[in-house]
Write a structure and sequence with these properties.
The protein is 40% helix and 18% strand. The chain is an alpha/beta fold and 291 residues long. The protein has two domains: 27-113, Leucine Dehydrogenase, chain A, domain 1 (Rossmann fold); 139-271, NAD(P)-binding Rossmann-like Domain (Rossmann fold, 3-Layer(aba) Sandwich). The strands form three sheets. It has a six-stranded parallel sheet. The protein has a three-stranded parallel sheet with strand order 3-2-4, with helices on both faces. A hairpin with a 7-residue loop joins strand 9 and strand 10. The termini are far apart. 42% of the residues are buried. Bound molecules: guanine. The site of guanine has 9 residues, from strand 4 and helix 6.
C-alpha cells in the first residue's frame, strides 16, 4: 500500500510555484494577487480561507480577504464581486462556499468574471472544461489529477467509480477522468444516492473517488485487491477525546480499505492540501494569462 501523500506533494508544488513567482518578479513582472470572499463565520470555511491566505504568503502572492458578516445581503455581495472584477490588481478570486441560505449561490458564481474565476465554478469555465478547451479546472479535481500523475497511477482504460455528483468534485472529476488527458482515458461510472447496485460497481473498480460526504462510508468489503482510493471526504465528527472536540473523518474506512489498496489518500493530508496548492496554481495561471 502506497500513501498518496497530499501534504508532501502540495508542499513540492508550492515550492515550484514560489520559484515561478521569483522568476516573474526578477523580470519586473506583476506579483500574483488572489482575493477570497468569506460570508459568515462557519468554522470549516474560516479554516479553509485562512489556509488559502497563508498559502499565498508562502508562495509569494499578495492576498486580500473580504470578510463579510452572515447577514450580508445578496446585493452587497454582488457589489463586492463587481469591485473585484474591476480591480486591475486582483488576478483571481474565490467566493468561499457554502453561502448563507438567503443568498442565491448560482447567481453569485455567475457574477464572477470567468477570467478571474480561479475556482473554475463559472458556467463558462465548466463548459470550456467539458469541451477540452483551456479553462480553470476546479481545484479539488485538479489536485486529484495531479496526485495521480505524480504517483504515476495508471488510469488509461481503467474502471473508475466516482461516488458523488456534486458540482465541485464528483461531476467535474467524472468528466476529466474520461477525457483524453494525463490521469484520464478512464472508463468512468458516476454513482450517487439513487444508485442501486453500488457494491457491485465498486467491487469492479480499479480506482474509486469517494466524494459523497458520509464519514467512513466505503468499507473493505466493497473494494477489490489492488484498488486505488481517492478519499475526498472531510467531515468533522464529534470526538470528546480530542481537545478541539472533533476529529476529521474521510468517506473511506481507512482501517479496512487500506490493506486492500495499491494507492490510497489519507485524511487528513491527502486531497485537502492539494486543493489549496491547485488554487495557487490557477492564480499563477490567471496572472500569467492577464499579463
Ligand atoms: N467550499 C468547499 N470547497 C470549496 C472550493 O473548492 N472553493 C470554494 N470557493 N468553496 C469551497
Amino acid at each position: 500500500m502506497i500513501l498518496l501523500d497530499g501534504k508532501k506533494t502540495s508542499a513540492d508544488l508550492k515550492v515550484e510555484i514560489a520559484e515561478s513567482v521569483k522568476q516573474i518578479k526578477a523580470k519586473g513582472g506583476k506579483t500574483p494577487h488572489l482575493a477570497a470572499i468569506l460570508v459568515g463565520t462557519d468554522g470549516a470555511s474560516m479554516t479553509y480561507v485562512n489556509a488559502k491566505v497563508k498559502a499565498c504568503e508562502l508562495v509569494g502572492f499578495n492576498s486580500t480577504l473580504v470578510d463579510l458578516p452572515e447577514e450580508t445581503s445578496e446585493e452587497t455581495l454582488l457589489n463586492e464581486i463587481k469591485k473585484l472584477n474591476n480591480n486591475e490588481d486582483i488576478d483571481g478570486f474565490i467566493v468561499q462556499l457554502p453561502l448563507p441560505k438567503h443568498i442565491d449561490e448560482q447567481k453569485v458564481l455567475m457574477a464572477v468574471n470567468p477570467d478571474k474565476d480561479v475556482d473554475g465554478f463559472h458556467p463558462t469555465n465548466v463548459g470550456r472544461m467539458a469541451l477540452d478547451l483551456p479553462s480553470f479546472l476546479p481545484a479539488t479535481p485538479y489536485g486529484i489529477l495531479e496526485l495521480l500523475e505524480r504517483y504515476k497511477v495508471e488510469t488509461s482504460g481503467k474502471n473508475v467509480v466516482v461516488i458523488g455528483r456534486s458540482h465541485i468534485v464528483g461531476r467535474p472529476m467524472s468528466i476529466l477522468m474520461s477525457q483524453k488527458r494525463p490521469a484520464g482515458d478512464a472508463t468512468v461510472t458516476v454513482a450517487h444516492s439513487r444508485t442501486k447496485n453500488l457494491k457491485e460497481l465498486t467491487l469492479k473498480a480499479d480506482i474509486i473517488v469517494a466524494a459523497l460526504g458520509i464519514p467512513e462510508f466505503l468499507t473493505g468489503d466493497m473494494v477489490k485487491e489492488g484498488v486505488t482510493i481517492i478519499d475526498v471526504g472531510i467531515t468533522r465528527v464529534n470526538d470528546t477525546s480530542k481537545k478541539r472536540g472533533y476529529r476529521l473523518a474521510g468517506d473511506v474506512d481507512f482501517a479496512t480499505v487500506s490493506p486492500k489498496s495499491a494507492f490510497i489518500t489519507p485524511v487528513p493530508g491527502g486531497v485537502g492540501p492539494m486543493t489549496i496548492a491547485m488554487l495557487m496554481k490557477n492564480t499563477l495561471l490567471a496572472c500569467e494569462r492577464k499579463n
